[in-house]
Amino acid sequence: MKAPKTPGTPGTPGTPGATGTAGAAGAPRVLLTGWFSFLHGEVTAGDVLALERVREVLDRSGIPHDTAWSPGFRPDGPHLEDADPARYTHVVFVCGPLHGPQVARLHERYPDCVRVAVGVSVIDPRDPAVRGFHHVLPRDAEGVRPTADLAAAAPAAPAAPVAGVILTRGQGEYGGRRRHEEVAGRVTGWLARTDCARVELDTRLADGDWRLCGTSAQLQSVLARLDVVVTDRLHGLVLALRAGAPALAVDPVAGGAKVTAQARVHRWPALVPAERLTPEELDRWWRWCLTEGRAAARRRGHAFGRAPDRDQGGALARLLRPEAGTAPAVSGTGAGRVRRGG
Asked: 125: cis peptide before it, omega within 30°?
């Protein structure tokens, strides 16, 4: 770390000289802060990756450090109010725009620490939030050549499974057997605690709504790229298997209904009834979907293509042939008759 600039001395090109005093004597100990530290800030993936890059650099240099997190993101901390100013020689602000009172208050809380901003955007070099730093290493600022964002060089991390989530809170036709709200609440609560990248999807199609697919082919293209689909919808299950993606299906109707029926038709085991919906049961089938279930789903998808006449299409065609000799039933004993199989 460089020694702090004295008041009035030009700082990093494009930023003013910062005021302040040197940090405490002795071996350096760094407190890492950023917008991810503020209760009224936000935590973005880019900010956290930039933080990981800084941590990597400090670890490689043998410099001890702590990170202050927002109470809204990590309730267990540590938080800024837990970070005793006397414990640190340096405060480093990582990533994001360098402006506003929350950043400026860092200078008031840690007046005896060397304060450094790195990988930041300097919008107004006269802002007290900027001027309070001894050193500013910007990624972009007026009159300064831009540098690569810290997130670009962050250490690689193991990839997380990508899970499509297709849930419904509708289907009022099931009346008192509906468990849809309870199922959706339990499933989404479980997903929030599961290490995966979640992609919320809808089987509804729309013309002109960018949030929804416009064609079935578009939705199938998304499903084919997923590691797993978590769903309580019949077509969430069927379309996932058609695309070769394992489906963790939950039947939201007490006693089982159409989701259970389709799971039986396609001999798909990863089905959780509403009555047995627990985190442990979801965990069990999640692990299966990400291991044995991958190959099982691909086999189901291939089977769909090889046996296209397993559905009721053939039965419909036979009913509509002239030789069938029956007119459409609209009244009498034939009206509404449910036929068995095809």
From this structure: no
